[in-house]
Amino acid sequence: MGSSLVRIVLGGALLVSLAPATALAGAPEPAFLPWTRQAGSSTDDQMADVTLVAGDAVAVGTVTGTYAGSPKGASDAIVQRIAATGYYQWIARFGTNGADSAYGVAASPDGEALYVVGSSDGTWDGQPANGQSDAYLARLSSSGSVEWVRSIGTSAADYGWAVATSPDGDIWVVGTTYGTFPGTSSAGGRDAWVRRFAPNGDVRWTAQIGTAGAESAFGIAIDGTGRPWIAGGTTGSFPDAANRGGEDAYAARLTVAGAVMHVHQAGSKKDDVAIGLAAAPEGGVTASIVTDGRLGGGPAGPEATVVRSIRATGSARWTVRFDGPGDVRPRDIAARPGGGYVIAATTDGVFAGATPAGGSDAVAIVIGSTGGLVRVRLVGSVADEVGTGAAIAKSGRFVLTGLTTGALGAASNAGGADLFTARR
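Predicted structure:
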């Protein structure tokens, strides 16, 4: 099947649209076929997150060289929309004259807007440069044009890691700060922060959350009651909790106005950090946690993946752990409509009976609604892969995204690390 190629510059973003020339509006989706898409520049690039929108995979990441246009600065944000059939619908590249990265993506409830969160040390058009580096939130149309960007920061270094939307259309962004946001106070040297935006980009409020130790926040989810949860790591102790040693994982439930309701803190004598967060259908959330300690009942040593489901009251509902002879490092977790989850991870050896392709492999771990292992799928080459983002449909089909330093399937490596998105 042939394809048409159109290059358009919209709102400061280079938009590359790749669509099948014979595509018919309203045509039924063809029978499922797995696919892998690999692309990139001659330097290092990586995908960070992915979501499903009307069956399409929308993946975001960072590119440093020439791909889908020339660099605006040291690095740019990249967004790819890939149809269920594997065709690129469009590719959008945008950034400042500095170093820009994209780490998270979410869609509006109606799918007509896409929200991308990341970090930048440059200056966005019409936005202030607040400090050493700022987080940002960008809104793109469903066809890939950048509609607005909002800079988020203090006079120090700030990072934006994840984004979620609520049924009312509001956007919730979470990250880490070394400074103090206006109207808040710093609890320690490094804090978590949450900012709530209206769909037009207006700020509703900002909350800064922490202890006397150091906090990070990497995940955010909106539960069934419309309340936000955030997750990350802490070297301190939240109220009614005691640090177990090193860094502990935590998940905090907030009110819709940003006040902390309660915090679930869990850890071992070593380091434990919650990386991903998904709303649980039965209430509360489920977190993906990386540990090199005994959290979840396993041995201390190589990094392991722990998945913990947490009730709305803050208590643990269930916990499962996945170990391998080498590291099994989780990143994103996504809920399957109707029950269950998929976790994006990276493994350094044989895992759950799956034979490694070579080096490190990206892996999708699919589990049931109570944590039971359903299946494992590796994406790998003779080189190294890292799994960073995942999303799953009600059918159980999922997409996994990340980076590869090799060549996946019939693809060729463009140089350094490439972007990849795979559907299985």
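Summary: The mean pLDDT is 92.
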